[in-house]
């Protein structure tokens, strides 16, 4: 293939765009917005996916979360799932006694409330994440202590009024003092702080670490009517599938599920939760791409309109080129390349715009690792160039069909 006509057409296209800068900018504004949206949304979704995946995988590759319905699933529970019995501590005991492939079993009782208050000497914090756990919670890797000690089996058995608190709660309530040994009042109950935790490496963006961990039986003593709990089980290395089969049998027996009935509980692994989450993000990405394509459509129509105007303005030039031997393919190539260069430049501007969106998102949500993925930048450039190619076909073919004699007479 002879590349000289392509280079000449590209140079001519750039010169034409330089001669009409404002018109070119307004023409591709829709392309810039559409491409920028694709890039920006792609970067935010990539960062969001990385953040959520890290949180879900923090439970470990051999961990199983047992709850009434699938843990981590974004969709609401079904009517059947809402009627399921709550998990009880008897299931924890049954798993510890009978599951030979289970390394550890850790119950986690919690309260669904955003109004729980923590206080120390006039300093208040709301939205505390109150949980009742046992010693196995730390062994499963969910608690990284920064000072003090964790809850022991003895604390749990004697329902000791002690607590281990999260990093942001420590910083807010005990800014200038050592929290260890100090009292903390949570939801009207006073406890002694025995340990503080580092903020989890994987956490939801913008989420503060306001955990207050109590001994499981202390929690049950103070909140006897609270039924919400889940169980985290760590299977032995390489035995995850077999361990889940054991868990299922043990739980069905403990919960008296008839042979003909399905499970009234759910076993969720980190990989399953990540897969469920990505089904949602893929749908969000598809919707955003469809919406951003509206901007590309508007930009494409603008490109076609301005190229038709350009054909009309340069009718005499086209006639001269044909008169001295230019073929129809040369005229088509000239105008197609001009349209592609125009939208490709808009695509580059859109990539910069999308990168700015990712940068601003990263500054606002410091724990959201938003970054422009290579596939999004490449896709934005290809789509923008393809938009120019598609919408430039009609103006280019119209220019190629001009009669040279009539074109030379055009004023």
Which helices and strands, and how do they pair?
Elements: H1 4-19, H2 21-27, H3 29-57, E1 63-67, H4 79-82, H5 89-98, E2 102-110, E3 117-120, E4 123-126, E5 129-133, H6 136-139, E6 145-148, H7 153-157, E7 162-165, H8 167-173, E8 183-186, E9 189-197, E10 211-215, H9 216-222, E11 229-235, H10 240-254, E12 266-269, H11 270-313, H12 315-323, H13 328-364, H14 374-391, H15 393-400, H16 404-409
Parallel strand pairs: 5-10, 7-9
Antiparallel strand pairs: 1-11, 1-12, 2-5, 2-11, 3-4, 3-8, 6-9, 7-10, 8-9
Helix pairs in contact: 1-13, 2-11, 3-11, 3-13, 3-14, 5-10, 11-13, 11-14, 11-15, 13-14, 13-15
Explain what the structure shows.
This protein has 411 residues and is α+β, with helices and mostly antiparallel strands. It folds into two domains: 4-54 and 276-409, no CATH class; 60-270, no CATH class. It has helices at 4-19, 21-27, 29-57, 79-82, 89-98, 136-139, 153-157, 167-173, 216-222, 240-254, 270-313, 315-323, 328-364, 374-391, 393-400, 404-409; strands at 63-67, 102-110, 117-120, 123-126, 129-133, 145-148, 162-165, 183-186, 189-197, 211-215, 229-235, 266-269. Strands 1, 2, 3, 4, 5, 6, 7, 8, 9, 10, 11 and 12 form a twelve-stranded mixed β-sheet that branches. Strand 8 (183-186) and strand 9 (189-197) form a beta hairpin. Helix 5 crosses helix 10 (240-254). The longest helix is centred in the last third of the chain and has 44 residues, at 270-313.
């Amino acid at each position: 293939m002879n590349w000289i006509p392509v280079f000449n057409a590209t140079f001519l296209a750039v010169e034409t765009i330089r001669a009409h800068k404002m018109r070119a900018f307004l023409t591709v504004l829709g392309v810039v917005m559409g491409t920028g949206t694709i890039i920006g949304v792609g970067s935010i979704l990539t960062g969001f996916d990385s953040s959520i995946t890290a949180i879900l995988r923090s439970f470990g590759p051999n961990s199983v979360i047992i709850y009434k319905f699938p843990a981590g699933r974004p969709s609401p529970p079904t009517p059947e799932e809402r009627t399921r019995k709550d998990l009880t501590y008897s299931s924890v005991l049954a798993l510890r006694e009978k599951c030979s492939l289970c390394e550890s079993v850790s119950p986690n009782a919690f309260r669904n409330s955003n109004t729980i208050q923590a206080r120390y000497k006039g300093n208040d914090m709301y939205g505390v994440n109150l949980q009742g756990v046992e010693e196995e919670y730390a062994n499963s890797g969910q608690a990284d202590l920064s000072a003090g000690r964790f809850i022991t089996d003895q604390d749990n058995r004697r329902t000791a009024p002690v607590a281990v608190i999260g990093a942001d709660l420590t910083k807010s309530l005990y800014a200038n003092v050592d929290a260890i040994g100090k009292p903390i009042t949570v939801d009207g109950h006073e406890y002694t702080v025995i340990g503080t935790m580092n903020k989890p490496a994987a956490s939801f963006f913008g989420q503060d670490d306001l955990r207050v961990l109590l001994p499981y039986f202390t929690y049950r003593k103070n909140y006897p009517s609270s039924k919400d709990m889940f169980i985290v089980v760590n299977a032995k290395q390489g035995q995850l599938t077999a361990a889940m089969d054991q868990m299922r049998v043990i739980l069905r027996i403990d919960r008296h599920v008839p042979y003909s009935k399905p499970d009234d509980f759910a076993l969720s692994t980190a990989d399953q939760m990540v897969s469920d989450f990505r089904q949602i993000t893929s749908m969000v990405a598809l919707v955003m791409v469809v919406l951003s394509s509206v901007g590309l459509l508007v930009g494409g129509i603008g490109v076609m309109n301005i190229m038709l105007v350009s054909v009309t303005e340069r009718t005499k030039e086209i006639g001269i080129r044909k008169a001295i031997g230019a073929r129809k393919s040369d005229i088509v190539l000239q105008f197609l390349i001009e349209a592609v260069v125009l939208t490709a430049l808009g695509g580059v501007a859109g990539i910069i715009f999308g990168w700015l969106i990712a940068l601003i998102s990263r500054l606002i949500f410091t724990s959201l690792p938003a970054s422009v993925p290579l596939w999004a930048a490449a896709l934005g450039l290809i789509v923008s160039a393809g938009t120019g190619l598609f919408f430039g076909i009609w103006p280019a073919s119209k220019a190629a069909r001009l009669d040279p004699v009539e074109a030379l007479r055009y004023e």
